[in-house]
Amino acid sequence: MSTTNLAAFLSRAPVDPRLSAIVGVVAEACVAINGHVRRGATGQAMGALGSQNVQGEVQQKLDVLSNDIMLEICAQAPGLCAMASEEMETIHPVRMVEPEGGYLLLFDPLDGSSNIAVNVSIGTIFSILPTPEDAAGRAVTEADFLQPGRRQLAAGYVVYGPQTQMVLTLGAGVSAFTLDPENGDWVQTSATMTIPAETREFAINTANTRHWAAPVSRYVDECLAGVEGPRGKDFNMRWVASMVADVHRVMSRGGVFMYPWDKREPNRAGKLRLMYEANPMAFLVEQAGGASFDGQGDTLDAPVIALHQRASVMLGSSAEIARLRAYHAPDGLTT
Ligand code: AHM
Ligand code: MG
After folding, report:
1. What is the DSSP secondary-structure string of 201-262?
2. What pLDDT score does 335 carry?
3. What are phi and psi of 258, to 5 degrees?
4. Percent of the chain residues topping a pLDDT of 90
5. Which residue out of 57, 106, 111, 116 has the highest number of ligand 1 atoms within 8 Å of its CB and is therefore the one to mutate?
């Protein structure tokens, strides 16, 4: 296989070069974040910061540092008009929208950051939306960001694991790039990531079993029943508790990842955030032939009413998501 890299891939991509340039700066920022992650306790960025983010979660020094790196480096892309992040209450405007329109970048700068201290894989998740048509010639508002995931033009994640990899879609399939630690180059290591339709692996935090909705309980019970149960096959369970790592496993070899609504906080849709966690992952999964469901419909069609909106997340192999969808139908538990 002839090798190519992210820069060459982006220069050939049949999309607005301004959009490609935004992916390029995200990759550059992730190289900088990767440096801090890899340095660990030998650097200055380990430990909790003693503050909380807008979600009321404890911030790690690396959360804030990664957010600052994303803001500073990504602002250089000329088509980028504003950014939003898990770590910021409201949007970060960059420049006025040009007459031909521009782009909005959303990210979770360091997802799974509770795993930093134990040296388990973490990641950066990002999503790129167009500015709305009526935004030309003015500054972006927070309301401009509130678009369904189906409108995303690009999405991806970078996993800081044994290897640093970027998994990317520009809306026509999914590619993976591996960071060469020798020269900082993102080498394309997969051109067609595809999720197998069937699987024998699922990922869910089973500590929440007693809180699940009945369709989720049925699905997991049937997996656990294995070869003696209705599925007629044994399943395996994996839970890294780092969404990027868990979704990367699903993207790499199939499976189902779930962080569904549960009864702990019935008025909360789920733990994960729609705009910069669920939607970019749902876009990637669909582009790789998988599916994503939020208990009611496709994740990508969920109405968006708030920047930090939560979502119920079930994604992965298409046959498994179809099964979960059927169990959630009004008569789904009786059939
Ligand atoms: P974060 O954005 O605050 O890091 O939280 C998101 C993480 C996901 O990466 C992961 O899937 C989930 O929280 C783990 O939750 P739990 O602690 O319930 O296992
Ligand atoms: Mg996070």
Report:
1. EEE--GGGGGGB-HHHHHHHHHHHHGGGSTT-S--EE---S-HHHHHHHHHHH--EEEE--B
2. 60
3. -135, 130
4. 88
5. 111
CA of 172 to the centre of ligand 1 (A): 28
Mean pLDDT of all residues in the chain?
Answer: 95
Domains (range + CATH), the chain: 6-190 (3.30.540.10), 201-334 (3.40.190.80)
Mean pLDDT within 60-87: 95
CA of 8 to the centre of ligand 2 (A): 30
Q: How far is the CA of 190 from the centre of ligand 1 (A)?
A: 27
pLDDT of residue 58: 73
For the whole prediction, is pTM greater than 0.85? yes
Ligand 1 site residues, Cβ closer than 6 angstroms:
57, 86, 108, 111-113, 205, 241-243, 259, 271
